[in-house]
Amino acid sequence: MAADSLVHDSVMDLLLIEMVATVSSADGDRDSAFAKLEAAGYRVGMALIERLVLPARTLVARDRQRFTDNLDIVKFICKDYWLALFNKQIDNLKTNHRGVYVLTDNSFLWLARMSAPVSSETPQLASLHTAFPCGLIRGALANLGMSAIVAADTGNLPQ
After folding, report:
1. Does 1 have pLDDT greater than 50?
2. d(C-alpha 153, C-alpha 90), whole Å
């Protein structure tokens, strides 16, 4: 990974940590904090997908055709969108062909440096740290014409 890419990763890590801390301390209510972080991610995801899909201002140097179905949209999220966000593609995509898609990132960067003061608080803190990325995905999907519920599973985090 290039040195300038590491700077970007560090900035995003610190920004997410501060966003979670600020929203959590201001609200006190975890559900309200989650909703605010997810809404911020949604707005950013809607704007970012515009930059990725529009040919005149594209970050991904390929011409995009209209997506023919939801699977094409999800594949775009797994490959190009995730690559633009995290410099890597999703590790695994599973579907039941009934509208449920499971995207797996085995080394999600924004959780790699997260730590809780007490190990028993890790799942709750991880949930808040995934609210913004869930919003990023939901916003991108919405802008591509796909209504979705996006949830993160952090069940296999170390304690």
Report:
1. no
2. 15
Predicted pLDDT at 56: 43
Question: pLDDT for 52-78, tens place per residue?
Answer: 876 544 455 454 456 788 999 999 999
Chain centroid to CA 11: 16
| DSSP structure string for 7-74 | HHHHHHHHHHHHHHHHHHHHH--HHHHHHHHHHHHHHHHHHHHHHHH-GGG-SS-S--PPP-SHHHHH
Q: Tell me the CA end-to-end span of the chain in Å, nearest whole number.
A: 28
**How much helix, strand and coil, in percent to the nearest 5, is found in the chain?**
60, 5, 35
